[in-house]
Amino acid sequence: MGNMKKRVGLLFLLAVAVLYIIIYVVPQVTGFFTATYTAEYGELQTYDDTDMYIVRNETVYTSEVSGTANRLIEEGRLIRGNTTVMEVTGGSGGANGEKYASILERLGKAAVPTSGFISEDGGVVSYFVDGREAELTPETMGDKNREYYTELSQDDVKELSGGAVAAGDPVYKIIDKSKWYGVAYVPAASGDRYAEDQKVDVEIGDTVISMTVTGISDEGEFCRLLFETTRYYENYGGIRVAAVRIVTSDAAGLIIDNGSIVEKDGVKGVYVKNKKDRYDFVPVNILLVGETTSVVSDSFYYDSGGERTVTVNPHDDVLKDPENKD
After folding, report:
1. Which of 23, 45, 114, 133 has the fewest CB atoms within 10 Å, counting from its CB?
2. The model scores a pTM over 0.85
C-alpha cells in the first residue's frame, strides 16, 4: 500500500513537471523552432562612426592694443572685406598671455596684428582659436598622417575673451566662406565603400551635411579620407575635432535576412509561405546589402529588361533557412 502511494505521488509530480514545461517553457522557446519570419518595412544604412578633423582657410588676428573688447559682429556672421569686426577701448587690458601661450606659439608669424580690427578679407567671423589655423589648411591636410591628426584635441580650442584684452592676444579669426574640409580615418576594410567624387552624408550631432570625397589613401590598418563641402554648418568655426557618422549608403524597403536569399536559375530570391503552407520561390530586387540583413523592393519591381516582376509583399512569411525548406 505504501509503495502504491509513492508511485501515485511520483506520477503526480511528473505530471506537474510536464504541465510546467508546457505552460512556461515551451512558449519561450517556440521562436527557436519557427521556420519563418515576417517581412517588414525598415531602413538600412552602411556607415562608419569615427572622428572628423575640421579644416578651413582661416586667418587669426591679434590685438596690438590693450583694453576692453566691444564686438560688433557676432559669432558665425558672414561679413564683407574691410568690415570693422570689433573695438578695443579703455587702454587697460587683462593678462591673458598664459591662456593663449600655446595658441600663439603654434600660430607664430601667421597671426595678423591689428589695431583697427578691420577684416582685410570677407568671410565668416569666429571667436574660437586653437593655433592650428596656419599649419592645418586645405593645402596641407593631405600631407599630415594619422599620428598628427590623433594628437589634435577639441580641448585645445579656446573661446577668445569678449572682455579684457591684452596686447598680443588673439581676438578673432576670419574663415573663407566658399568651402570647408574634413579628414577622417576608417578601418581599412571599409575603404572599398568610398570613391573619389562620391557624395556622402556626414552626421554631426543632429545635423546632416552632404560632403564630397576628394582623397583616399591607405595608412596601414586605416584608410584616410579627405572631404570638402560648401554646406553651411552653424558655429563650425569653433570645431576642430567632431564625432561623426559617415553614411555611404541608405535604403528603405523590406528587411530580409541575408541567409534567406538564394539564387535559382540565375535569379536571386527568397522562399515565401503560401496559403497551403508550402513555399514558393519569389525573386527579389536587392537595394542594399548589410552585414546580416538586406533591403529589398516590396510588392513589385522592374527588372533589367523593363519587365514588371512580382516580389515579396509586406507581412509575407519568409523562410529563414532555404536549405531546410523540405
Report:
1. 23
2. no
